[in-house]
Amino acid sequence: MTPRAREIATAARALLEESGGAALTMRALADRLGIKAPSLYKHFPDKHAVEVELTAQMLTESAEALEAAETHTPGSLEALAGAYRAYALAHPHLYCLATEQPLPRTELPEGLEDRAALPLLRACAGDLDLARATWAFAHGMVILEIHGRFPADAELEAAWKRGLKALHP
Q1: Which among 28, 64, 83, 84 would be 20 to 30 A from 90, CA to CA?
Q2: What structural domains does the chain harbor?
């Protein structure tokens, strides 16, 4: 990626994080950078390409968060779930952009999706179905929390613990 493409991706991320996915348009991005929209197309062919870059950033950063949790507390699903939740809640618009539409697998850097999944897969002793069920639980909890779907008095920590225990008795 060229320095200018990195600058564009950084501006796109800032726009997304500040205002949400609906605000991320090529015109708004160009305005933020003080350039004309056609100039963006020299570096990213379309908005989808910008979104792929942001999705790759999310997967990389969430993988780093899970790897750190795994290093600190090896084998702890609670630690992995806590790191996953903390990352998603710290970057809700990025998380939603990357997880609420089909994953552009063929356009992501080679091995990135696997890297993001490996800490959970290791904690599930290589059981792919259990890892997927655990991820689905964690994703569901996080997305409902991001979208404000739990009542104000919901005890989410208890729900996380109960859900993880149900999947991993």
Answers
A1: 28
A2: 1-45 (1.10.10.60), 52-167 (1.10.357.10)
